[in-house]
Amino acid sequence: MKIIFFICNLLVSTIVCFSSAVSAQQDTLYFQNQLKLQSKHGANTYKTLKKDSLGLFEVCTYTITDTLLSKTHYAEYAMLSKEGMETLYYPNGKIFQQINFHLGNLSGHWIQFKKDGKNIAEKRNYLTKEEYSCTLYDEKNDFVDEEGVMLKEQKHGLWKKYHYKSQAIKSTIFYQHGQRHGEAIEYFTSGKIKRKEIYQYGKMTKGALYDEEGNKLKYFPAFVFPQYKTSVYKYFNVYAPCLYSKDYNKPTLVYITINKEGVVVDSNIENCDASCILIAKTAIAKMKKWKPAKVENEPITYTAMFKLRAYVPKE
C-alpha cells in the first residue's frame, strides 16, 4: 500500500512539475515575412509563444525592433486554431482591433478602434461565421453613424443611418444581399419624412419628396453617381482590355475623378502592371464629358471606383 501511495504521489508531482514547466516556458520563433527562420539573422519579425493561465497558447508577434504587432491565442501549440481574444496594434502601440474566436472561427465581439486606441470606429457581433450585426461610428466623434446586419459581407435587412452628431435617424433602408430592396425612407432632423423610395432588387421603382411641412415636391434622388454616355466597362473592354484581371480575388481597381462640370480631372489604377496603366490612362484622358455626380440635385466633384475582372468560364 505504501509503495502504491508513493508511486501515485510521484506521478502527481511529475504531472504538476511538467505542467508548470510548459506554462512557464516561452519559445521565440523568427520569420522573414511568412517564412520561418532558424535564427534571428535575416528576420523582420519574431513571435513569442507561451501557455497562459487558461491553458491557451499565447502568441505575440513583434517587429525585429520589438514593436508589438499582435497578440493571438490558439488552442494548440501548432497554432492552427485561434481561440479567445486576438488583439492587433497600430504602429504607435495603440490597439487597432480586438477580435474574438471560437474553434478557429470569428465569434461574438469584434471591435476596431480609431488611432487613439480608445474611441471605437466599428463594432461587430458575429452571430454566425457569415452573419454579424455592425455598428459604424463617425470618424470625428463617438456618435453612431450607421448600423445594421451584414450577411456574407453584404448589407442585409434593415440599416439605419443617423444625422451628424445626433441620435436622430437620417434614413432607414432595407437591403437584400447588398441591394436595396423594399422601402427606403430619409428623415429631417425633426423626424418628419423628407424622401420615400421603393426598390426592387437594387432598382428604384417609385420615389417621392416632401418639405418639412409635409408638402409634396418634385422628386429627385438624394445622390446621383456620375454617368458616362456608354458603359464604362464596355469602354475599357474596347480601349484598355488589359485592365481585366483574371484573378477574381484581386480585381483591377480604377478610380476616376469627375468634376462638377463633368470633366475627368484625375485617375488612379491599382493591381495592374505599368504598361497597362499607361494604356488605361490614355483611354481615360480621351473620355468625353460625363454627367457629374449630384448631391440634393447639385453637381459635385466625385471619384468613382470600378472593379474590373475578366470572365473566366468554368471548365
Give a structural overview.
With 315 residues, the protein is mainly beta. It contains three helices and 23 strands. The protein has a 17-stranded antiparallel beta sheet. A hairpin with a 6-residue loop joins strand 12 (154-162) and strand 13.
Radius of gyration equals 27 Å
Strand content: over 45%
Structural class: mainly beta
- Give the overall form: globular
Descriptive key words:
single chain; 315 residues; mainly beta; 17-stranded antiparallel sheet; 3-stranded antiparallel sheet; 3 helices; 23 strands; 14% helix
What's the arrangement of secondary structure elements?
Blueprint (H helix, E strand, L loop, with lengths): L1 H23 L1 E7 L2 E3 L7 E7 L5 E7 L4 E7 L9 E6 L5 E8 L2 E9 L6 E7 L4 E7 L6 E8 L2 E9 L6 E8 L2 E9 L5 E8 L2 E8 L5 E2 L5 E2 L7 H8 L12 E7 L5 E7 L3 H12 L7 E3 L2 E3 L1 E7 L7
Structure summary:
Helix content is 14%, strand content 47%.
